[in-house]
Amino acid sequence: MTKKVVVITGAGTGLGASLVKRFAALDYHICLIGRRIETLKEVITKYELANHSTYSLDVSKRGQVSEVFSEILEEHGQIDLLVNNAGVGYFDKAELITADQIDQMIDINLKGTIYCTQEVIPSMRERNSGTIINVISTAGLEGKDTEAVYCASKFGVRGFTESLLVELADTTIRVLGAYMGGMKTDFWDGIYERDSIGKLMDPEDVADIIMANAMMRTNLNVDQVVIKNRIVD
């Protein structure tokens, strides 16, 4: 294995696609994971990716996660970096969120992150090497109106991430929690007006900041980064 291997969940849109672009520039072999292969293929075409693999996966399904990650390890030998980026959000007052919406947010945002991380830790421990980046959102730092369940899922990911830092403290495996505000992506379609979405952060900028903080540096470790929208009156 000569090229480093990165696995990115939710790689077909928004921040996930922006991160694909940056890892491609670093000559990684990129494993793109998403629920729709068609969307992943659009990213591959857009960035003219040469070194890539695509996998259709619903990260909330434990059996599927195990099967896909086993396939990746068998095909590529190792996973050097995991980006847990897949996520979903439904926004309304706490009492109005449906059972299905609750299940999706907890299953995809929280359990999906846990499932994927469980698959890479054993081999990373064996090599005493690797990086895990959890894309969390500022909803994992503070409660927000109409985001009670979304925040609950993201607070869960925050707790999981902070605990990983403790559990892996005796290794050289790096864990980074990225807490960002809203970005100009289709995540907000139907929630915000187009003008409001246009004032949010560009995922390209957010990807740059994550990459800068994930970079290996001598005698320095960044375990979390907070990226917020600038408030303009």
Strands of the widest sheet, in order across it, are: 3-2-1-4-5-6-7
C-alpha termini separation: 52 Å
Helix content: 40-55%
- Total beta strand runs: 7
By CATH, the topology is Rossmann fold
Query: Whole-number average pLDDT?
Result: 92
Order of helices and strands: EHEHEHEHEHEHHE
Q: What's the helix count?
A: 7
The count of domains is 1
Gyration radius over CA: 17 Å
Gross geometry: globular
Secondary-structure content class = alpha/beta
Low-confidence stretches: none
State the major sheet: 7 strands, parallel
Spell out the CATH superfamily: NAD(P)-binding Rossmann-like Domain
- Reading off the top of the CATH hierarchy, the class is best stated as Alpha Beta
Quick overview of this protein structure:
The protein has 233 residues and is of the alpha/beta class. The chain has a 7-stranded parallel sheet, with helices on both faces.
Task: Please render the helix and strand layout as text.
Elements: E1 5-9, H1 14-25, E2 29-34, H2 37-47, E3 52-56, H3 62-76, E4 81-84, H4 99-127, E5 131-135, H5 148-167, E6 174-180, H6 194-198, H7 203-214, E7 224-227
Parallel strand pairs: 1-2, 1-4, 2-3, 4-5, 5-6, 6-7
Could you characterize what this model shows?
The protein has helices at residues 14-25, 37-47, 62-76, 99-127, 148-167, 194-198, 203-214; strands spanning 5-9, 29-34, 52-56, 81-84, 131-135, 174-180, 224-227. The protein is an alpha/beta fold. It has a single domain, classed as Rossmann fold, CATH 3.40.50. The protein has a 7-stranded parallel sheet, sandwiched between helices. The chain is globular, with a radius of gyration of 17 Å.
